[in-house]
Write a structure and sequence with these properties.
There is one protein chain. By secondary structure, this protein is α/β, with parallel strands linked by helices. The protein has helices at 3-10, 29-36, 52-56, 80-93, 101-105, 108-121, 132-143, 159-172, 184-193, 216-230, 255-260, 272-283, 314-323, 325-328, 335-378, 387-393, 412-424, 454-467, 471-478, and strands at residues 24-27, 47-48, 63-67, 125-129, 149-154, 175-179, 198-204, 235-240, 294-298, 308-312, 396-397, 404-410, 427-428, 431-432, 442-447. It has a seven-stranded mixed sheet with strand order 4-10-9-8-7-5-6, sandwiched between helices. It has a four-stranded mixed sheet with strand order 2-1-3-13. Strands 11-12-15-14 form a four-stranded antiparallel sheet. Strand 5 (149-154), helix 8 (159-172) and strand 6 (175-179) form a beta-alpha-beta unit. The termini are far apart. 50% of the residues are buried. Bound molecules: pyridoxal-5'-phosphate. Pyridoxal-5'-phosphate (PLP) binds at residues 131-133, 136, 158, 160, 204, 208, 240, 242-243, 298, 300, 308.
């Protein structure tokens, strides 16, 4: 294929004017009305802002909506290299991979992607799955496969972990115990009291709804102490890095390396940052990401493609490919998804740090603007408080290095009204309600991306400050939706 002709078809890179945007869409008036009324719509609900349909529909003007609801944290899904790679793979190989990996669905491209992911994570091996959901549903029952196993799971773990645990319980009789969110003390008490022969601790590293991090250092200390006490590897640690991969850690390797330190395989090409990390590692009594036994990830968030994966040791991979049913009995990833993810990892190597620095800029701008607006409108009550504290005071939690901002509202009605008010101002940041979160902890989930313009981030931060903490939400609740 002629590269130049193809480049014209694809258009300029996402960051250039006129390129397809990962963070902005045009919404038809009737769809906009349905969104305002929270009428679920699985149809053609919006057009990319630069699509032909969006440009030419003249009967009724569409609305510009800025998406703060996508998990494409780096804007990778529309990066030119990623689109070109996916399109080329589709032209060369078509879409359907035709069978599961174990039959004839595994190609050299799948193998290359696995190697790239293992390199990113500093592990020996990687196994691809059809999604992150399938990875969790495969890994947990594969590794907890008899009634002498007990699984300890954070109460705010993602639904796919919850379902993986349920499968292990139903199929093998494994015991599942849920511990309070991020409560390493309660977890330690429970693990020490457990009579199980084998224990798995499973946790998100960056929690998808609250944007906070698991207490990994405490969990690793617990694992080490228990294993030393038993004189064998009784406790196994499984983490889900769906939201942290390419977002946190050295070269985007994830939150585990950020919180625990890198392992030896990742310590090539030392630079200043790495030296700093080494000192950190020393302070943490040499805990490292190598203390993680199995790490689940997805290709569908910051990697900007589709699919799931698990990184682990070579021996663990041998187990997974022969017993993880969601890998064995499911068609392998389509060639365009594999090519897109592989290209995204190359983009990450080239410009990932720049992208992450833009993302950090968006996080900082959000916190500073939101706090300034709160001070301006409720100044008397927040003198002398830091930006973070001011935000938290009204229920807005911005966690450093996390692209997910949680805006606690409370009741379902108030959360829906707050989301509708943001939508009227041109922002999509959906209300998160039960069963995703417990009753009366309904919130808005704001997902920031390196692709967001700082002007849009600041405008949203002001809108959030206006709707949060009762006043705006109450005003919105009385408005006709
Ligand atoms: C923590 C976590 N794990 C797993 C998944 C599932 O990933 P996928 O969308 O690839 O199925 C998600 C998706 O939202 C998630 O948030």
């Amino acid at each position: 294929m002629n590269d130049d002709a193809f480049a014209t078809d694809v258009g300029p890179s996402a960051s250039a004017a006129g390129g397809s945007s990962p963070v902005e869409v045009r919404v038809a008036p009737d769809t906009f009305a349905r969104w305002l009324a929270n009428d679920q719509d699985l149809g053609h609900s919006h057009e990319p802002s630069t699509s032909a349909a969006a440009r030419t529909s003249s009967s009724a003007p569409s609305r510009r909506v800025r998406l703060f609801s996508s998990n494409d944290y780096l804007g990778m899904s529309t990066h030119r290299d990623v689109r070109v790679a996916a399109a080329r793979a589709a032209l060369a190989h078509g879409s359907g991979p035709r069978s599961s990996a174990l039959v004839c669905g595994y190609t050299p491209a799948h193998s290359r992607l696995e190697r790239s992911l293992a390199k990113l994570k500093g592990t020996e091996e990687c196994v691809l799955f059809s999604s992150g959901y399938a990875a969790n549903c495969g890994v947990v029952p594969a590794l907890c496969d008899d009634a002498s196993c007990e699984i300890f799971s954070d109460e705010l773990n993602h639904a796919s972990i919850v379902d993986g645990c349920a499968l292990a319980a139903k199929r093998w009789g494994a015991k599942v115990t849920v511990y309070r969110h991020r409560d390493a003390t309660q977890l330690a008490t429970m693990v020490r009291a457990s009579g199980a022969n084998r224990v798995m601790i499973v946790t998100d590293t960056l929690f998808s709804m609250d944007g906070d991090f698991a207490p990994l250092r405490d969990i690793v200390a617990l694992k080490r102490a228990e294993n030393a006490r038993c004189g064998r590897a009784r406790v196994l640690l499984c983490v889900d890095e769906a939201h942290a991969t390419l977002v946190c850690g050295h070269r985007g390797s994830g939150a585990a390396s950020m919180l625990l330190g890198q392992n030896q395989n990742q310590n090539q090409n030392q630079n200043q940052n790495q030296n700093q990390n080494q000192k950190e590692v020393g302070r943490r009594e040499c805990s490292s990401v190598a203390d993680v036994d199995v790490s689940v990830g997805t290709l569908s968030k910051a990697i900007g493609s589709h699919g799931g994966f698990v990184t682990c040791s070579a021996s663990m991979k041998r187990v997974l490919v022969s017993v993880a049913r969601s890998a064995m009995f499911s068609t392998s990833l389509p060639a365009p998804s594999v090519a897109a993810a592989t290209a995204a990892l190359r983009v990450n190597e080239a410009v990932g740090e720049e992208m992450r620095s833009r993302l950090r800029g968006a996080i900082d701008a959000f916190a500073a603007t939101c706090a300034a607006r709160i001070r301006e409108t409720r100044g008397a009550r927040c003198g002398g408080m830091s930006d973070d504290a001011v935000c938290r005071w009204v229920g807005v939690t911005v966690t450093g290095n996390s692209p997910v901002v949680s805006v606690m509202i409370g009741s379902e009605g108030a959360a829906l009204a707050a989301a509708a008010e943001l939508l009227r101002r041109g922002f999509h940041a959906p209300a998160i309600r039960p069963p995703t979160v417990p009753a009366n902890t309904c919130r808005l989930r704001v997902a920031l991306s390196a692709s967001h313009g700082l002007g849009d981030v600041r405008e949203l931060a002001e809108a959030v400050a206006d709707v949060v903490g009762g006043d705006g939400a109450r005003a919105g609740a009385t408005a006709k939706l």
